[in-house]
Design goal:
This protein is an alpha+beta fold. The chain is built from 9 helices and 18 strands. It has a 7-stranded antiparallel beta sheet with strand order 8-9-10-11-12-13-14, with no helix packed on it.
Length: 456
């Protein structure tokens, strides 16, 4: 959910919209071809074949949300029209704002992310990106987005290059993202949930909070640190709102200086960055103090080689442990791992798996989803035979997640994703007999279905 730089040139806007339309068309599966649009007071909502539901839902609240945000940031403009692109061509949950171009892109797939709780995904991501759009346009200084001056000496030994860049907006990541999350919270679309609180509390408890400087950038972060920019930024902006008032959050955005956010903090809040950071940390000390005195039952550490190790599943016979791990990679890039609990040996079974793992009842097969090498936009169901060490693909373009066997392993139940909607479905292990068990089309989000022990 990131934003770039601002420009109003109308002719460029037209070219850009044409480019985006072409980009959306290219990303769509080959059997999808239609590109449609819905027009509201301020928005042109562009969607392809599977995006009609999502586009229609956005049309219900987009204008009112936009007007409230413009009023909040005193950011009324002579050119308030916005292009909103709905993308349902890939199984990812995301959104981004090109605030210099009055364009946002919303991915229809809802977020099922282990480090965040459940929310109204569509309204959350829309308000988040529109807060970026309005707030960053207001914060941007001057008519020029970017200037670079440089000199170099090439084809010599040694070569030299000296560059100087000036950018009209260098808002720190913690404030930009925290402001968008608090903005979505004010519309009832976001919340400080128990997942976020767990992650922040754990970092506080282990004395591993990002420094103030490390909170300022998203690019180049390792492991979970980029997610911590969001998490700590959200918490810190909430702290500013509660201690100084929401109007000061708006003022920090609107009165942003050309070069240095430290100056803005001093002018608006009357404090230095060190004072802000230490005050926020002290608030965490007060909030979480009781956890220092709690007794913790120490279990046996089985695996801890990634910044994320999750979805553990012990085989019914107790011999194996399967789980997903990023093992030194960025947090969303997961591999399916298998550990023999009798020998302690662990290995990578499948690269680039995701969501959740489950076992067959005879402990012979693992059930999981991954994106196939060809047409890798959508997740499909696979099994891995532990004895033969062979992988088998069960579904094609099902956009599946959270598969689980029935008792007797004669059926697989899973979640199917399409057009911003989830459905619960079953399929046989040989890939036949696909059947939808639900027919909801109002954005209901389902997670991790399973059969009852008697299979009924």
């Amino acid at each position: 959910m990131h934003s770039l730089a601002y420009m109003r040139t109308k002719c460029f806007a037209h070219v850009f919209v044409i480019f985006i339309l072409a980009f959306v068309f290219i990303l769509m599966p080959f059997d999808a071809y239609a590109v449609n649009s819905i027009k509201t007071k301020y928005f042109t909502i562009i969607f392809a074949e599977n995006g009609e539901y999502t586009a229609g839902e956005i049309a219900k609240f987009c204008d009112e949300t936009y007007e409230q945000l413009m009023a909040r940031y005193d950011a009324f403009t002579d050119n308030p029209s916005v292009v909103c692109i709905v993308n349902d061509a890939i199984d990812i949950a995301n959104g981004y704002a090109l605030y210099f171009q009055n364009t946002i892109t919303i991915f229809a797939t809802n977020m099922d992310f282990e480090l965040r709780g459940q929310t109204d995904w569509l309204k959350n991501v829309f308000v988040h990106e529109m807060t970026h759009m309005v707030a960053l346009q207001k914060a941007a200084k001057g008519p020029i987005n970017f200037v670079g001056l440089g000199t170099n000496r090439s084809n010599r030994n040694p070569d030299h290059n000296v560059s100087l860049f000036w950018y009209h907006l260098s808002q720190p990541g913690w404030f930009s993202e925290g402001n968008a999350q608090v903005g979505a919270e004010s519309f009832g679309a976001e919340r400080w949930d128990t997942h976020r609180d767990m992650v922040l509390r754990s970092a506080w408890y282990e004395k591993s909070l990002l420094s103030f400087d490390d909170m300022s950038v998203l690019s180049g972060q390792d492991g979970m640190d980029s997610e911590m920019v969001y998490n700590q930024g959200y918490s810190m902006v909430r702290y500013i709102k509660e201690k100084y008032g929401y109007e000061k959050v708006i003022e920090l955005n609107n009165d942003y200086s050309y070069f240095d956010f430290d100056i803005t903090l001093k002018n608006v809040l009357g404090i230095t960055p060190d004072q802000l950071y230490s005050g926020w940390v002290k608030s965490l000390e007060t909030q979480y103090a009781s956890f220092r005195n709690r007794s913790i039952d120490e279990g046996e550490l089985v695996e801890d080689r990634g910044s994320m190790d999750f979805s553990p599943a012990v085989s019914p016979d107790g011999r194996y442990l399967a789980w997903l791990s990023n093992r030194g990679k960025d947090y969303p890039i997961m591999d399916l791992m298998l550990k023999d609990l009798s020998t302690g040996k662990a290995k990578v079974l499948v690269k680039n798996s995701d969501y959740r793992v489950s076992w067959s009842h005879d402990s012979s097969k693992l059930l999981y989803v991954k994106r196939p090498p060809k047409r890798p936009n959508f997740y499909d169901i696979y099994t891995y035979d532990v004895q033969t060490e062979k992988e088998r693909r069960i579904s094609r373009l099902m956009r599946a997640r959270d598969p689980s066997f029935s008792p007797g392993d004669s059926l697989i139940v899973f979640i199917r994703n399409e057009g911003g909607n989830n459905s619960i479905a079953t399929i046989k292990p040989d890939g036949t007999g696909f059947r939808c068990l639900t027919s909801t089309h109002e954005g209901t989000q389902f997670y991790k279905p399973s059969f009852s022990p008697d299979g009924s």
